[in-house]
């Protein structure tokens, strides 16, 4: 049930992003009052740890108030806050709202049930280049499905890539159209091996979105203090 419910939320979000905030024509003051505290608190906490999107508060309040009343009423605080992270992790959405390039790509959020199975890890790895502001140079990405039974939705997909000049392979567990989140730990092993100061820190919205930051351990500790207990990042 949770997966089905979030899929509906994801489609709603995608639709609002594509039309550039169509909800402005149907302003709902009561629903805006319901969502504003979650948006304001999330943006304020993020600003305290160096990710400042506070200028988007009014826009996001208007757009999230388009959500049906039953979803807003039934959704726990963690999900509503998670929706804010999902918005901010969408660079195309931010560009559409006029956010400048220096502020883009400070987090990366995506649904772990993906649409394009053939490129799910290629897209992920390419996003890491942007998220790391070029500290991770990833190229020569391959996805080998020879160990996958597509009809059964099972098997092992071998993901090959070059990171900062060195070749790596990751054996991803294949399960239909679901992303294997354990690749995040694999990437962090590479970062440690290459003696880089930052790591990928992950959290979720409580359902099926993965939210990633490329930051130092000190930053992660500050984030966890700010967002405790609902949101905590870890390697």
TrEMBL record:
It comes from Candidatus Enterococcus moelleringii. This is Lipoprotein. Keywords: Signal. The keyword Signal applies. Residues 1-19 form the signal peptide.
């Amino acid at each position: 049930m949770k997966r089905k419910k979030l899929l509906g939320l994801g489609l709603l979000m995608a639709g609002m992003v594509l039309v550039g905030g169509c909800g402005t024509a149907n302003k709902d003051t009561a629903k805006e009052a319901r969502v504003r505290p979650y948006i304001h608190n999330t943006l304020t906490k993020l600003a305290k740890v160096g990710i400042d999107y506070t200028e988007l508060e009014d826009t996001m309040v208007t757009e999230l108030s388009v959500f049906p009343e039953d979803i807003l009423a039934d959704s726990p605080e963690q999900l509503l806050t998670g929706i804010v992270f999902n918005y901010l992790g969408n660079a195309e959405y931010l560009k559409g709202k006029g956010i400048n390039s220096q502020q883009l790509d400070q987090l990366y959020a995506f649904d772990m049930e993906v649409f394009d199975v053939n490129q799910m890890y290629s897209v992920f790895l390419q996003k890491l280049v942007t998220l790391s502001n070029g500290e991770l140079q990833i190229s020569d990405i391959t996805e080998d499905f020879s160990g996958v039974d597509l009809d059964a939705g099972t098997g092992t997909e071998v993901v090959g890539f070059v990171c900062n000049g060195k070749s790596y392979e990751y054996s991803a567990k294949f399960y239909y159209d679901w992303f294997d989140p354990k690749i995040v730990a694999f990437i962090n092993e590479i970062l440690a091996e290459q003696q880089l100061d930052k790591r990928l820190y992950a959290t979720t919205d409580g359902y099926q979105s993965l939210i990633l930051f490329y930051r130092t351990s000190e930053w992660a500790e500050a984030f966890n203090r700010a967002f405790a207990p609902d949101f905590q990042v870890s390697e």
